[in-house]
Structures are given as C-alpha cells and as structure tokens.
Amino acid sequence: MPLRFRNTLFKLLVSLFAAGVLTLLFGDGPRPDKPIRGQAITVDARALSIPAGSVDIPTALSLKLVDGWELTSKARQFGSLSAVYASGDIFTFVADSGAMVRLTRQQKGKPWLGSLMPLPVTCTTAGGKGDRDTESIVADPKTGTFWVGMEVQNAVCRVASAAQGGTRLYQPAMMKDWPSTGGPEAMVRLSSGGFLVFAERPRDSGPVADLLHFDRDPTDPAAKVTPMHYRPPTGYRPVDAAQLPDGRILVLNRRFQLPFTFSARLSIMAAPAATRGKIWGGPIVARLDGDVLGENFEALSVDNDGENLTIWIASDDNQLSIQRTLLLRFIWPGAARPARGVEQAQKPR
Prior knowledge:
mainly beta
C-alpha cells in the first residue's frame, strides 16, 4: 500500500473515531432515552481537593475559587447538567435529558435535598431525547418565570404560571438555520429586560459564533432581534454566560481535545449594545485545567448578595462513568455593586 494512501486512510480513521467520541460525549444528534420521571432526590456532595495551579486567575483580580464538590445521586436520571440558575443556597439546573433539577445546599456532611422533574410538555413537543435537549436557563426571580434554550429545536421555551402568561415555545427565525447541536447553548437575561442568545458553534468553520440580541422576551414574536457575533478564545466554544452588576458579560468557554481532555476559560466582554454585525469578545479572567478540573464545564451562574459576587460553575457528566458532575464556587469580593449608568448603557437602541 503506497505511503500516501496509508496516511490518508489513517487520517480518515482518526476523523471517524473523533466524530464518534464527540457524538458520544456531546450528543450530536437525537438518541433514544427514557422519559423523565418526577421524583424527590438526595445528592451526596463530596468536597474536592483542588491542587494548586488548577485555576489560573490574573493577580490583579480578587476573584477566588473557594471550594468545590463532586455531586452524585442514586437517582438514575440525575446528571448531564448543562445550565444552572443559583440564588443563595438554591440551585435550578437543566439537563441534556430535559430534566429540571432543583437542589438546596446543606451544611457540610449532609446530603443535599431536591427534586428532579420533566420540563413542561409544551417545551418538548416530540418527546425524544433530542427534542428535550436543554442547554441554557435564565430566570426572573420576581415572577418565578424561567426561559430555557432547547438545542436541537433551536428554540426558547418560556416556563411560567398561567398568571404570568403561561408556558410557550418559540423558534426565532434567525435561529432556524443554526446547527442542530450548536445552540442556543448560552442565554443571558439583561438588566434592561433584553436577552442575549449565543450559538455554541458557527454555521461554517469560522472562528466566531452567532450571537443574537433580543430587545425583550425571545419567545415574543414581536421582539426586535439584532444579529451579532461572539469570538471565543482560540480553540474554545461558548457554553454559558451571565451578566455582571457593572453590565459586562461573563462567558464560560469550553474546549475538548483527544484523548478525552477538557479545559475551560472564563472571559469577560463589554456590556453589549444592539449593534448589527458587531463581533464581541474579551480577555480571559480564569483558566481551568488539570486532572481535577479537566472536566466538561458548561454551566455558569452569578449570584449577587449585595456585597460580593458568587460565581457558580458546574460540569456536565453526559451520564458517563468516565466523567463527573462538579460544582465550583468562586467569590469576587467588592464586585457586587453596579457601576453608575449601567441600566442606561444596557437599553437597546
């Protein structure tokens, strides 16, 4: 066999193997799965021992990783957590399986208590795993309304009580041609009432991903939508995002490399104005690597107690035994107060 042909064949086999691994890890395409069964759950939270050097944060920042846990449960459908909304000691996760998991953090040594339930049927019309694949979540704490991003459907589902207008699913026109496993991977509810929705992957092989600015609820057909772009750190993809009190956007970016190596980067971009075609991006403020933190981190939430910011980051284990569900807690002292004029800066044009 000629050497050139052998090299070509080897590259083809490697490509096919890599595609299979990515399909296994990230669910590139619908696969059968059991329906979610509502149930009360307990979760064991084992404290992590995190080696020095696992997190690299610029010395100019006061941001610090203070602790972390590995979460496990006897509930078979627990896992695949892809997004989180945190408020105090209460967490609301959504999963690739279409499950919504609510947990309350307990004192050291005690199991965390919570529930696992399916998303409303309005959000998951076909019932298959691909139809239920949920990748992002934001909330309005005043009304209890949630918005979740449905990846394969490229849609946003608004989960609300009848008094708040009820639950509804909507596929914005500008998201219809996004890759079926490429978004809406990250979503932000802005202080102005607008929304940002990030695609995980570009529609081509380029370095930037689609980013949409909605001037209101993205499930409202009358919303004004401004198409923009996001440039992640080289080799990474955006997987979650949250707004800081000063208006800037904290973005969690993930990279997967063979053989089975994950890393994550936190970056900050400026408070986004609705500027058609603009490419947004920003500097890296934290790097997560190593044997302990080399996991599939893709969930991010920022909690503001009025004095300090608590930043939560969670990993998606894809319900595989070779991966883990980790939850990390960062504290950013003094970053909780918004800068003057943030509300005005956030208003869409």
